[in-house]
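User: Assemble these into one structure.

Assistant: Restating your components, then the assembled model:
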Amino acid sequence: MQMSFQFTILIPLIPLISFLIIGFLYSKMSNKLAGIWGSVSIFSSFLLSLFTAYRYFFEVGRVNGVYPKILGFDFEWLRFSDSLSAHLGTLIDPISVMMLVVVTTVSLMVHIYSIGYMKGDRGFNRFFAFLSLFSFSMLGLVLSTNIFEIYIFWELVGVSSYLLIGFYYEKNSAVAASKKAFIVTRFADLFFLIGILILSFYTKTFDFISLTDPSNIAVMQTGSITFMGLSVTTWALLLIFIGGAGKSAMFPLHIWLPDAMEGPSPVSALIHAATMVVAGVFLVARLFPIYALGSDQALQVIGYVGAFTSLFAAVIAMTQMDFKRVLAFSTISQIGYMMVGLGVSGYGNEAGLGYMASMFHLFTHAMFKALLFLCAGSVIHVVHTNFINEMGGLRKHMKITHITFLIATLAIAGFPGFSGFFSKDEIITAAYHNNKIIFYTELLVAGITAFYMFRLYFRVFWNQEASYEHKPHEVEKTMTIPLIILAFLSIAVGYIPFGNFISSDSMPLESHINWGVASASIIVSFTGIIIAWVLYKKPSNLPERIVSSIKVLYTWAYHKFYIDEVYLFVTKKIIFNLISRPIAWFDRHVVDGAMNGIAWTTSWVSESIKGLQSGQLQKYALAFVSSTIILSALLIYILLNV
Amino acid sequence: MMGGLALQDFLVVSTSMFFIGIFGFLTRRNLITILMSVELILNSVNINFVAFNYFLHPEAMHGIFFAIFVIAVAAAEAAVAIAIIINIYRRFKSINIENVSEMKY
């Protein structure tokens, strides 16, 4: 049964129209109208997404045992040659439907929350316009039918992220952070573009459906061409992964994400926790059949990079004092988990557990991490500081925020029964079957995650009550309702039988909790929670004592292992001095010098001969007559002698 | 024959007139005199036209017509030149060409 999915094109178009309307009527619209307008349009996208999901999974269902990939809408945009053309359209398959639901849900919550959070801000309308632009780009990205289209939306997402990080453009730090985010991700996108070009050159197609078809021999055979010991497919896939790593803040391209916290908290929740930063994971998942069947090495690289990043970011997160930065590093760490899930996965059946787990974790993480950021936004909104040592004892003042934050924290810590437990556990199980080093790393990271999240929780909501300028109070309804909904989702989504909907080959995948692995991870996270409880529930000097006993390590982690400084050293000292300065010198002295020389010579020549223009008519006439005579004489002489 | 005069005689006269005109044009400072020198040059050309026509192609009339054209042009040129000279005089209170050097660099 073929059902029409033509309407899916509306899902990204509605936010685009909303962006244009709010943008053009910027100063005419009242804040309230802009907020409601933005929320209503994303709400309609949300309803359409739910409808799409229902129709796709339940009305269309499986065809020959697999979920079909459906082109909902297709439009030829650029025709390069008869065999090569760029299309725009919407591709409906399990992961794009899942992403639609994630993006529209979180975006809707963030829109509603922002009505309260941004109230009274001068840039209120601008904020909603940019949110709509971002929703459009992100929805376009997940619906892309081909690698060319995804690249366009990839960059659009980068631009909207840039605009929103730099939202408070009067603040120097915000401007610097937005530039940093844009440049780092753009730098990574360069490799992405090269990867796309290599891949499409050898496979002769941009199209995802034919690229990811396991029976498409042309795609898989490119593995036979090698370059520097690795097959061309591996090179292309690694380059594409670098692009994904830039957006998903994988080590060593993670440096932009902590700074991106300069943006308003709802932006962090939407872009830098739930949606945009998982674009890299989505990209790898989108091309997963090529990764799994075409190149084992690329997948291994992804697994190791993911594992290292998750550990690295978790260690840094333990030491940070800025509320949002802890969450930022936790995001990096959790995305590392998702990458690990993909990296340890195989294609098809049981081997594809990692793929399913990774998508599952993406789904659950979006819910609880958005919730964490929105709670952080509420707390910061109320106490006017980002630093957790200036907070404490907030549980009495902000009951709803406290409870919802606790739920999200339990979810991310992998507490049994909460969504994070199910998804993280499956990633760890997949790692257990595939790679023991990664397995132990991820187990350790699970414990660290529980520790730093509960450190945050106890420090902010328990501990000694800090002295506040204004007495803290619960935030208004438009802000608490999204918190409650997301808290509900943070628990509920864990019970979705995810393997029925999404698996590497679209066949149903039954996943059972592996109790051996699960109990290990439960023990580890309980340990983390208990340590945090001991150290931070009540004010004590124990943390300081521990810190001073591992001073060096702590300082390193606190300064994020000096990665930023390394970048600064490389760019400022090496690239600027060795490359940029010589080029600037060459430009100033050789290129400009040649131009200036020409101009100077012309001016000198005219200066020195201008005396001939005496204005004396008879001098001119004399010159004219005498030249005529000389020329005639010459002519006659030549004619006579020929 | 015109009283035994040959073509060379006419050419001698016209060449002398031409160079007298050139000399006057280059050396005189008075604009009116310069204008007269230009007339001399034009008339020397006229003599050439007519003489060549008469001696080389007696059957044709081209040289004569050219001479008539030159006379007409000279008359027009004299009218324009006198107008310019009057304007120069009004502006500089003089018709000495050395004073009129506004167009230098």
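The mean pLDDT of chain A is 85.
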